[in-house]
Design a protein that fits this description.
2 domains; about 220 residues; globular; Rossmann fold; alpha/beta; binds 5-O-phosphono-beta-D-ribofuranosylamine; 7 helices
Amino acid sequence: MIRVAILVSGRGSNMQKLVEAADQHSDKIEIVLVASNKPCDAITYAINRNIPAKIIDRAAYDSRALQEEALAAIIEEAQADWIFLAGYMAILGADFVARFANRIINIHPSLLPAFKGLDTHERALQAQVKEHGATVHLVNAALDDGPAILQAKLAPLPDEDASSLAARVLRLEHQLYPFVLISLAHGDLVIEGGWPIWQPKKNRKHLNDDATEQFLSTAVIWP
Ligand code: GRF
């Protein structure tokens, strides 16, 4: 059984997909906490689902360090093994990242290392990229950095605008992030020494069905 905390700041669609994955694998995954740095829809959803939910409001603390100290305390209190960032819109400080070293995972709407930061879809279109997508990666103290765990790709359509591209990438994210969570819970993905290691297909205990293979055929696996 893995114990998971999810950090959010906004609408929480990725968080919902993680919660649904935990529901479907309740013998392997427990969402022990949803925490945010401000009031948001994601927290409302978690409360309605009876998931332990807390707002550690940045506005109530004198510094980011103090806010992160409070956040770290409730994560430790919840005894979370893993922290999944799902639209947590703040850069985590080095102390926080070190405290949970190699146990923080993020999803970012670009094919990292391309387009770190905000407005990824607009910038991808401006750059006329042939491929765009989303990345799940381990978190270190630099913005949208850290070893990639899994990416999913798509090709921008001719004349596609940023909102259409964002919606299509979000659909990929909703497959990608639960896939990583479930893989981690079943030991098909392990994190060792700060690096993701995927078990070869023949050794995967779970997610070795046709639908998964189809999904993985559009994804790129590291290492
Ligand atoms: C997603 O695009 C995610 O990749 C990024 O922030 C967005 C969060 O969306 N980190 P949601 O709150 O999960 O709907």
